[in-house]
Amino acid sequence: MLKTQTPSRPDALTWVFLGLGLLLLPLGLYLALAAPPDVNQGYLVRIMYLHVPTAWVGYLAFFVTFLYSLLYLFRQDPRHDRVALASAEIGLVFMGLALVTGMLWARPTWGVYWTWEPRLTTTAILFAVYLGYFLLRGAIEDPELRRKAAAAVGVLGFLNVPISYMSVKWWRSLHQTQSIDLTTGRIHMDPAMLQALLFNLLVFTLLYLGFTRFRAMVAALEEAKEEA
Amino acid sequence: MRRVWLLALRDLRLEVRDRAGVLSVLAFFGVMLFVMALALGPEEAPLRRAAPGVLWVALAFMSTLLATRAFALEVEENTLDDLLLTPGGKEWVYLGKLLFQLLLLLPLSALALLLSAGLFYLPLARAPALLLTLALGVLGYASVATFYAGLLARLRGREVLLPLLLFSLVVPVVLASVRATVGLAEGLPLEEVAPWWQLLLVFDLVYITASALLFPLVLEG
């Protein structure tokens, strides 16, 4: 779904993803604002409708980077590398958004913007890993070595994602545990809130797909220019 | 298997003959501990509290310094390509370099443990458990460090890039090692320290397997 040919403008599927995502974004926002407030957190809970989807897109994007990095290492097809690059970039942006929204939520709830508890620490590390990914890309001039080195970071760096995801359970920390637990399939949430959250997750995933396809196309154009 | 040993022993012999590298790393470690001890004050309590953290941060810096040496000679003498020309799989190059790093790092880190025990009141009563933590932590660290050193071997500016890439990836290892060391220093029962060892072991296995598998793909075309 993410692989693009080398066209000079975005294809129909990219526009569909982007258009649908942008159209549904206000609706998701409305649902988030219309959802009932939380028993304990009150209206503050609304940050969750942004925080969880952005974090989800971050994890998803890094997973896609991992997958396409592996593919690149085995197949040596530059197209795979471009998708990995695009996905890592989008993932970094969304992970940054997740960190920011998390901080905005933490200030009124915990009293501080940042605290060194496991979930926050592992997420910050994850952020640093993918920052390193781009620094590495920028530092290597030989395109083939750059792709390979970046792919290696994309694969090894992903090992931190499950750790980051599970850290809330392993260390029983300050951070909320998952409301939708992917490991056991249990859901701890009111149906009205769940609906809004799931809708927002869908919207952000659509946006992610659109952005990544778009970025991969731009990367292809860049590469064509570099070679010319 | 024989190749792994041969490569490791050859590198070790070169490194020991050279001496300058190992000695400068050890001196660096000593200076770092002195500065930390000065900064954290002469009282015993803060030093004792800081000991595990200081030990692992210093160890991390030390192994980064050593990691650049894993492939430095090969690149200087243009022998890396010769190594890669040998028939068969290329995993053994990684494993040999890793073994070399371990043979170098383990005695050094045992020395480092003694140094920090002397300067920071780190209790050595449970030396076997501490040594196990040390071995697991150093193994995890060296596995990633060796991989990246190989990856960046031919690159200019690798000395700057290596720590940057490395530190972000090995933070889980350092985290788990520090927690285990803190537990041991505070005298927690072994059952409470064991989960950290398990975590370290999982890291080590995953990193070594992944690195050994990726290494040939990354080094050749």
From TrEMBL, chain A:
The keyword Transmembrane helix applies. Residues 22-175 form the Cytochrome c assembly protein domain. Its main location: membrane. It comes from the Bacteria. It is a multi-pass membrane protein. It is found in: Membrane. Keywords: Cytochrome c-type biogenesis, Membrane, Transmembrane, Transmembrane helix. Belongs to the CcmC/CycZ/HelC family. This is Heme exporter protein C.
Automatic annotation (TrEMBL), chain B:
It comes from the Bacteria. It is a multi-pass membrane protein. InterPro entries: Cyt_c_biogenesis_CcmB (IPR003544). The chain crosses the membrane at residues 20-41, 53-72, 98-123, 129-153, 160-184, 196-219. Keywords: Cytochrome c-type biogenesis, Membrane, Transmembrane, Transmembrane helix, Transport. Its main location: membrane. It is found in: Membrane. Belongs to the CcmB/CycW/HelB family. This is Heme exporter protein CcmB.
